[in-house]
Design a protein that fits this description.
With about 190 residues, this protein is an alpha/beta fold. About 25% of the residues lie in helices and about 25% in strands. The chain has seven helices and seven strands, in the order E-E-E-E-H-E-H-H-H-H-E-H-H-E. Strands 3-2-1-4-5-7-6 form a seven-stranded mixed β-sheet. Helix 1 links the parallel strand 4 and strand 5. The chain is globular. This is Methyltransferase domain-containing protein. One of its GO terms (molecular function) is methyltransferase activity. InterPro entries: Methyltransf_11, SAM-dependent_MTases_sf.
Length: about 190
């Protein structure tokens, strides 16, 4: 099984095929992730890492959804996708003119067919993209890097998780990076 480090830039990872659209980065494979189909076979990938990549891709909605479909297509059942992005309410996200799309846990969960069906049953307003695109993954974990001065206060016990959640909703630069681990479900959820 393959392991792909997509959009590797200069962050080469041992044991992975390091992929980038820019030959100047000297990746193992030069691939434009916004052009389909990708050069890997259906179900041939066991693990994908995308570190500070997905927020740069898919300014056009059809292209973004094409990337999601390709991620699903190339992954084997139970494959793991780790996505690290800057939080959309951080200067790291806002300052870079090449960032075209905020990536959030809520947005990634729109490709979870179990949650799609639950939302439909409850009369929710979320678009069931997993069902529409015939892709399915589950958010296995979500982790954030709390920035200073919030981190010291949280680690020192002066702030709770609820305080941080409230701060994220009301202030910029509380969270720096977010890391989401997705687990591919094939066949798609049938419940």
């Amino acid at each position: 099984m393959l392991k792909l480090n997509l959009g590797c830039g200069h962050d080469k990872r041992t044991g992975f095929i390091n992929v980038d659209s820019q030959a100047a980065c000297q990746p193992d494979q030069v691939v434009d992730l916004e052009r389909f189909p990708w050069p890997w076979a259906d179900g041939s990938v066991d693990e994908i890492v995308m570190s500070h990549v997905l927020e740069h891709l898919g300014a056009d909605t059809d292209t973004y959804l094409g990337i999601i479909k390709e991620l699903y297509r190339v992954c084997a059942p139970d494959a793991r996708i780790t996505i690290t992005v800057p939080h959309p309410r951080s200067d790291n996200y806002l300052a870079d003119p090449t960032h075209v799309r905020p990536i959030t846990a809520m947005g990634l969960q729109m490709f979870n067919q179990e949650l799609n069906r639950q939302s439909i049953q409850e009369g929710g307003s979320s678009t069931p993209l997993g069902i529409y695109l015939n892709v399915d993954w589950a958010l296995e974990s979500s982790d954030v890097k709390i920035l200073e001065p919030w981190a010291s206060r949280f680690n020192g016990g002066q702030l709770t998780e609820d305080d941080i959640t409230l701060a994220v909703q009301n202030f910029y630069n509380v969270i720096g990076d977010c890391t989401f681990v997705m687990r591919i479900r094939k066949p798609a959820f049938a419940g």
